[in-house]
Write a structure and sequence with these properties.
By secondary structure, the chain is of the alpha/beta class. β1, α2 and β2 form a beta-alpha-beta unit. The longest helix is centred in the first third of the chain and has 13 residues. One of its GO terms (molecular function) is hydrolase activity.
Length: 153
Amino acid sequence: MPIANPGWMFPEYSFGIREERMQAMVNELRGKNVDLVVCLSHNGFDVDHKMASRVQGIDVILSGHTHDAIPEPVLVGDTIIIATGSNGKFVSRVDLDVQNGRMAGFRHKLIPIFSDVITPDAEMAALIDAEREPFKAELEEQIGTTEMVLTGA
């Protein structure tokens, strides 16, 4: 669905939820007898919460943008919203119980990822190193110091 920000880069896209368009798409999918409607969103948790309350028929919203790591899914009507955080710190596992073309239940687990105990994939690590190599000196240049920890918050 063409909804994006910023619109100046993609003038054919529009801003906001566009709930009428979303509802039409959900209705179209439901008309094809799909078992579930899952929305992968980068609108942010607050906008996804509004969308779930305004658009009927979405079973699951996988929410991004606001970097929220919510331990349990949030229920809005019959829609579950899952927010997994940011920067690969967590992975959400969601098991959906689908019966007769409807979601009958779910299980969710927010799994912390401890990168210091995971062995990197050698091929991927080599690819990343090769991409960074031309910028290595620039990336390692010290440009300042601080007396306090910078958390990024």
